[in-house]
Write a structure and sequence with these properties.
26 strands, alpha/beta, 7-stranded mixed beta sheet, disordered N terminus
Length: 574
């Protein structure tokens, strides 16, 4: 019997999904470095965060108002580590202070990342594009017609149908054999069963992101400042009146301070779109949050709001590596199985998993990006990462022939919280997600892994598996890699429950911290203050669909249309 030399798993998928635009960068005349900003400026709307929600929101509002969009990172254009499918993972492994990705480690011990670039997480992820389900839209209270119209507005620029080749076809057919029916073909819609979803990579392997949606903007109505780090939202506070947000303080790359204020007008607003970490963090730094926590950091309390930073969730992801005797194509996430029990099944594959053999980067499965499921979360130290990276580099590239089949827990039900670590907005806050704290999340993981096992043993997958590699052996390989040789004797595999806990990773779909009904109302206005909204994934109670990026972009457009409508109606009445 032929021995298989391979390595099983040093890291896994970035599913926040998306890349930044094509080879020819758009000529945005409204893009500027914050060092060129005047000391004081005035706008109708000030949007903090040029990410997945902030870009479509700013583009929409600019049609009938003056908009300042403040982004703490730089431009994605001209950076092949962002734009090229073949370079997937390199931006995530860049730990420099100029990187478009900023690494953080939750208190749970899971290594994670947040975006620091115009276009946000859509510049870093694996590109999967899919809408939220109809039930999710209804529960959010969104207008169905405007929601669909807003999705289509996004899709005209950033969404494509991916080519489906042999590995992804085998996953698709294996899902159907496993009973994840019906087959819904290619669709952006969230439907129970198996489907092929969209991608933000075009046919040339170029990423298109939320930054591309700025092509809709009115160049006369928008100013985008890059490397503009907002330190504080300014409030006017008068007795017996709600605090009124009227300006922001931001610093440029040289550390110079600038102030931007709202023009006088009843509908002018500051809108925070800084993401699930940045938005609650900035509210706290500006004096909105749990008063005792703010006082401990010597922050003046504007409003005691104990729910800011609460309800933080990150959908847990677990996967099984399947070495293949046959060559497989390079693929990111394309096929998904949407189960009735609350787990989503996806897969990715390829020699070096989108990394070049010459560069030996190992792409989306590299411990360089922090995905190290081979040791339990609390043991994922920098030293452990270094050992894994060194072990990988010593192996022959052929050992990576195969792919990963993964499951993501929907929701999730388990929640945690966010707290400030320092008063510097560029520092990561302290985050706890409490993966699998709720037993239903753990059960969904177990059930998802059972479906994966069925896929691996399906007739459709025969070509892509070694007969002598049993499921217990694959589980042990996935949990104990890097290894140089297949063990002569398989260890007794751990329970699936323990496998879930020990090999949990992020899928980069974390959300919460400024949730609807707790921190903001149904129109995303911050409760207890005036002229301030939060519009991004921090407002979500659950992650929408199998991947949130389509819905976050949709929400930016959706709320931009609603806000402009309110603005026009106010002009008519006045």
């Amino acid at each position: 019997m032929k021995k298989l030399v391979f390595i099983a798993f040093a890291g896994i998928v970035m599913l926040f999904h998306g890349f930044c635009s094509s080879e020819q960068a758009p000529k945005y005349i409204f893009l500027h470095q914050a060092t060129s900003a005047p000391p004081i400026s005035y706008y109708d709307y000030i949007i903090i965060g040029g990410g997945t929600a902030g870009c479509p929101l700013a583009a929409t509002l600019s049609q009938n108002a003056t908009v300042l969009l403040l982004e703490r990172g730089g431009s994605p254009y001209g950076n092949p580590n962002i734009t090229d499918l073949s370079a997937f993972g390199r931006a995530l492994s860049d730990l420099s202070h100029t990187s478009p990705s900023q690494r953080f480690i939750s208190e749970d011990g899971v290594i994670n990342a947040r975006a620091r670039v115009l276009g946000g997480g859509s510049c870093l992820n694996a590109g999967f594009y899919t809408r939220a389900g109809a039930r999710y839209v209804d529960s959010a209270g969104w207008d169905g017609a405007l929601t669909n119209e807003s999705y289509r507005w996004v899709e005209k620029v950033v969404a494509f149908e991916p080519p489906i080749k042999q590995w992804q076809c085998a996953v698709r057919d294996g899902l159907l054999e496993a009973g994840v029916n019906p087959y819904n073909g290619f669709t952006y819609d969230h439907l129970f069963g198996t489907k092929v979803g969209g991608t933000i990579f075009d046919g040339d392997g170029q990423r298109h992101t939320a930054a591309d949606l700025l092509e809709y903007a009115n160049p006369e109505g928008i100013t985008v400042m890059l490397h503009a780090s907002v330190h504080k939202i300014l409030f006017r506070v008068k007795e017996k009146m709600k605090p009124f947000a009227h300006g922001v303080v931001f610093r440029d790359a040289a550390g110079n301070k600038h102030r931007a204020y709202l023009n006088h007008g009843p509908k002018n607003e500051i809108i925070v779109s800084a993401g699930a970490l940045g938005s609650p963090q900035l509210l706290m730094l500006s004096g909105l949050g749990p008063k005792d926590h703010l006082k401990a950091h010597n922050i003046t309390v504007v409003l005691d709001q104990p729910l800011v930073g609460q309800g933080m969730s990150d959908n847990p992801m677990n996967a099984i590596f399947v070495p293949s005797p046959s060559p497989v194509e390079v693929s990111l996430i394309q096929v998904v199985g949407i189960t009735h029990f609350g787990s989503y099944i996806e897969a990715a594959s390829g020699e070096n998993f989108a990394g070049s053999p010459q560069q030996r980067d190992f792409g989306m499965f590299s411990p360089k990006i922090g995905q190290l499921s081979t040791v339990p979360p609390k043991q994922r130290t920098p030293e452990a990462l270094s050992r894994a990276i060194d072990s990988l580099q010593a192996l022959d590239p052929s050992v990576f022939r195969g792919g990963f089949i993964l499951e993501k827990v929907m929701g999730p039900i388990s929640t945690g919280h966010l707290e400030l670590k320092t008063k510097n907005p560029n520092d990561n806050p302290v985050i706890t997600f409490n993966y699998f704290k709720d037993p239903q999340d753990l059960q969904r993981c177990v059930d998802g892994l059972k479906v994966i096992e069925t896929i691996i043993e399906s007739k459709a997958f025969t070509k892509f598996r070694y007969d002598y590699l049993s499921i217990p052996i694959l589980l042990n390989m996935t949990a104990n890699a890097p290894v140089n040789l297949l063990p002569r004797h398989a260890n007794v595999s751990t329970s699936l429950e323990q496998f879930c806990k020990d090999t949990v990773m992020t899928i980069w779909h974390y959300h919460g911290g400024c949730q609807v009904g707790k921190v903001v109302d149904s129109d995303y206005r911050v409760l207890g203050v005036d002229a301030l909204r939060v519009i991004d994934g921090s407002t979500f109670n659950n992650s929408p669909g199998t991947n949130p990026q389509a819905t976050v972009m949709m929400l930016g457009r959706y709320m931009g249309v609603k806000i402009l409508k309110e603005r026009l109606e106010s002009f008519k009445t006045n």
